[in-house]
Specification:
single chain, mainly alpha, membrane, Zn_peptidase_2, transmembrane helix, transmembrane, 7 helices, Zinc metallopeptidase, about 230 residues, about 70% helix
């Protein structure tokens, strides 16, 4: 491939990651839009689905809260709180049930001390620090020609990459747990489960895209650093 004059050729490494990210975002938006309009035959809202899954798993101590935003759903293992976005919390749709059960899956992981979840939780402050300061340190190193500073920034960015890699098994496992309980507890009918799976698979792809993008960025940074030596 011909690279325009003056353009860093390592930027080409990011193109596949950008394409995958765009594709992943389009998939999750499409799947969520389709199945957020298809009502559940059981008529249960996302909050009711989550509550049923938590209670039947012996997690009555985990509370459920409504939060603002779109797809801002998450489980907080420190406070034992499952937070659902407004659409998921109050609507009786296939998408809401899938997302709510997925987040309840994280609470179950916490209950059974699921190893990858513990590793990811341990990595949170380190990844947050790396995300905030790695690029600043790398840019300063590049401007002033400090190879050691560039290497330090790369080490910090590697913490972000590790966090995203630890996230993958956590998210895949939570989705598997969600689909299992949705069928087992008959929250979804046999024909509704595959539809919920489409939503969760699309969501999982966004995590894959994020991890791949970070890996390619890390490779690019290593190449740039080695050129400066």
């Amino acid at each position: 491939m011909i690279v325009p004059y003056g353009l860093d050729p390592t930027i080409l490494l990011l193109i596949p990651a950008m394409i995958l990210s765009i594709y992943a975002q389009s998939k999750i938006k499409s799947a969520y839009n389709i199945y957020s309009r298809e009502g559940l035959k059981s008529g249960m809202t996302g909050a009711e689905v989550a509550r049923m899954v938590l209670d039947r798993s012996g997690l009555q101590d985990v509370s459920i809260e409504r939060v603002a935003g779109n797809l801002t759903d998450h489980y907080d293992p420190r406070k034992k709180v499952l937070r659902l976005s407004s659409d998921v919390y109050g609507r009786p749709t296939i998408a809401s049930a899938g997302v709510a059960a997925h987040e309840a899956g994280h609470a179950i992981q916490d209950q059974v001390d699921y190893g990858p979840l513990k590793l990811r939780s341990f990595m949170v402050p380190f990844a947050s620090f790396g995300s905030r300061f790695s690029m600043i340190i790398i840019i300063i190193g590049l401007i002033f020609g400090f190879t050691g500073m560039i290497s330090l920034g790369i080490v910090l960015f590697s913490l972000v990459v590790l966090f995203q890699l630890f996230t993958l098994p956590v998210e895949f496992n939570a989705s598997s747990r969600a689909l299992a309980v949705l069928g087992e507890y008959q929250i979804l009918t046999a024909d509704e489960v595959p539809k919920a799976k489409k939503v969760l698979d699309a969501a999982a792809l966004t995590y894959v895209a994020a991890a791949f993008s970070s890996i390619m960025t890390l490779v690019r940074l290593l190449i740039i650093r080695d050129r400066r030596r």
